[in-house]
Write a structure and sequence with these properties.
globular; 12% strand; eleven-stranded mixed sheet; Amidase signature (AS) enzymes
């Protein structure tokens, strides 16, 4: 299932080196794979401080990141933030013993931070730019007491620069590498968030998704990723692709950690009007209350059977069949052999037509709001890339997607037709299938295309590893606001299977 690319500098030796580097003292072993709840318990029992935790992750980044390239830069103030968290915990400041307080988190490099770090979407064109304020989700994380550890690498411009560039490549950091198999696709654009979390270079992370950019790297790096309903989390201060589809979500090693992160970042932000409507979906008491062992009991799950074919890979098909059996054993009712109508939209270029125009409008608006920037428009970005042909891989990969977007002229008749077709596909295909069959969720290996166009939520849970050790996952997706149900399903499945293992 992995998409392979050639990485000439990699060989068996770095894999051995990664193994040697990852074997450290006893404290390291207790931190590696630790959940948010584990870390909070260690804080409470005075077995660990936030300073020690941050130093551990900074050391792992120093050792592993030259090979994995999951992190673009670390926060020079991370230890200062850790000391502040430790002082607050010692003083028993309200909220200092729960949630994400004192927990390091890595942000995808298209999520703005008003600090000493850059926000560049992986591009040199935005290096040195200054944002007006923290992104909405970052402000919420700071209020929750989280430590902003650094910025994760990504497919440059959230994979909207070049159709020729492989997943995980950006100018600033080069190739992001799947820690389970160096030749496997890390997927993305939120590849660095997935790589870093999977490899224990950070506790939890944030990614963004327009179409697959949280779910796919989570699928391919054996982590849990939640793609929230559009508007459930603020996109203010996030370098955009299209506000119609963009969303910010957790990328973690467990469903419980993802729920803790979602609790911290979901909610109203008047800088993003979509949150006003979507905030009605947030349950009183938050999302962690839906971490139920019996969360699959009575759930009606629709199986998109054609997505599980895997011709030539019977072992994968067999694994998924075993998971279907587990779902039934945990009390779920499976409605099999379902298909989403209007699948022709998936092979059409409607999404590209609409997104190109929306990207130009949204990016120009974002760039114009910057306090300082080398570029102020998409046209400037393209010109910057043309002036810097010596930058790694610029000539080879080009910037065809940027050029296509620049050639648009707002939302015209062609774009309106594309948008109408995308909405029709969502309503008469995906949504109708769920409502007519009274489903709690649809199930597929990777469901991102089905849920992208109209802002539906989805979650990935690790499901196994192929013969080459490359991870694969299983996706559950529902209607807008169905995150509580999806968390119940995902947590119950995760606890019944416990598939995830660290890469080394």
């Amino acid at each position: 299932m992995a998409k392979n690319f050639s990485y000439p500098i990699f060989c068996v030796f770095p894999l051995l080196l990664l193994f040697l580097l990852s074997t450290t003292a006893s404290r390291s072993h207790s931190i590696r794979e630790a959940t948010v709840q584990d870390l909070q318990l260690a804080f409470e029992q005075k077995r660990l401080t936030s300073r020690q935790l941050v130093k551990f992750y900074l050391n792992e980044i120093r050792k592993l990141n030259p090979y994995l390239r999951g992190v673009i830069e670390v926060n020079p103030d991370a230890l200062y933030q850790a000391d502040k968290a430790d002082r607050e915990r010692k003083a028993k400041v309200p909220g200092s013993l729960v949630g994400l307080h004192g927990i390091p988190i890595l942000l995808k490099d298209n999520i703005a931070t008003k600090d000493k770090m850059n926000t560049t979407a992986g591009s040199y064109a935005l290096l040195g730019s200054i944002v007006p304020r923290d992104a909405g989700v970052v402000a919420k994380l700071r209020r929750a007491g989280a430590i902003i550890l650094g910025k994760a690498s990504l497919s440059e411009w959230a994979h909207w620069r070049s159709s020729k560039a492989p997943s995980g490549w950006c100018g600033r950091s080069g190739y992001g590498v799947n820690p389970y198999n160096f030749s496997a696709d890390p997927c993305g654009s939120s590849s660095g968030s997935a790589i870093s979390t999977a490899a224990n270079m950070v506790a939890v992370s944030l990614g963004t998704e327009t179409d697959g950019s949280i779910l796919c790297p989570s699928f391919g790096n054996s982590i849990v990723g939640i793609k929230p309903t559009v508007g459930l989390t603020s996109r203010a201060g996030v370098i955009p692709i299209t506000p119609r589809q963009d969303t910010v979500g957790p990328m973690c090693r467990t469903v419980a950690d993802a729920a803790y992160v979602l609790d911290a970042i979901a909610g109203l932000d008047y800088s993003d009007k979509a949150t006003i409507e979507a905030s009605k979906y947030i349950p009183r008491g938050g999302y962690k209350q839906f971490l139920k062992l019996d969360g699959l009991k009575g759930k009606r799950l629709g199986i998109l059977r054609s997505q599980f074919a895997f011709n030539g890979e019977p072992a994968l098909a067999k694994t998924y069949e075993h998971h279907f059996k587990t779902l039934r054993q945990q009390g779920a009712v499976l409605i099999d052999n379902l298909e989403v109508e209007h699948q022709d939209v998936l092979s059409s270029n409607y999404e590209t037509i609409a997104t190109n125009a929306e990207f130009k409008l949204a990016l120009n608006s974002y760039l114009n709001q910057l306090v300082k920037s080398p570029v102020r428009s998409l046209k400037d970005v393209i010109a910057f890339n043309n002036r810097n042909p010596d930058l790694e891989k610029v000539k080879e990969y080009g910037q065809d997607l940027l050029l296509e977007a620049e050639a648009t002229n707002g939302i015209g008749e062609k774009e309106r037709k594309a948008l109408l077709n995308l909405e029709k596909y969502s309503k008469d295909g995906y949504e109708k299938l769920i409502r007519n069959n009274k489903l709690d969720a649809l199930v597929a290996p990777l469901i991102s295309h089905y849920i992208a166009y109209n802002g539906y939520p989805g979650i990935n849970v690790p499901a196994g590893y192929d013969k080459d050790g490359v991870p694969f996952g299983i996706n559950f997706a529902g209607l807008k606001g169905s995150e509580p149900t999806l968390i119940e399903i995902a947590y119950s499945f995760e606890q019944a299977t416990k598939v995830r293992r660290p890469p080394f």
